[in-house]
Amino acid sequence: MKDSALCRFGVSMDKKLLTEFDQLVINKGYSNRSEAVRDLIREALILEDWKDPEQYVAGSILLFYDHGQKGLLEQLTAIQHHYHHEILATTHFHLDEHNCLELIIVKGKAGSLQTLSDQLVSMKGVKYGKFTVAPVSDLK
Ligand code: NI
After folding, report:
1. Cα angle at 104 between 98 and 107, to 5 degrees?
2. Ion ligand 1 — residues with CB under 5 Å?
């Protein structure tokens, strides 16, 4: 069978879980369960890939912070300069008088990018942070 051929498989689950899943399918705008299951599986496989710190990935680090936090901007800049080989672009949005949203686009080894993200997100004054990677299996 060709790799691209569609295969069917049956899944058993309790009714409550299936009802919740069907609601998710509707909320996310999927046209059917199969589409939603495929996306969930792809996401799980990407997460699995990350476990290999040597795997090359591309993605983004989203930061939400208060620029008034003493020393924060200097530290964020210093860390980003240290990782300049992995950072493709940084975009900063001033949301209001105090809050900033920063989007950092990254490419490199998963382990290194995770360390970068952990350093940024754990800084005092950073209220929210999220590291996301795109599914790129043949990136160098
Ligand atoms: Ni700002």
Report:
1. 170
2. 67, 94, 100
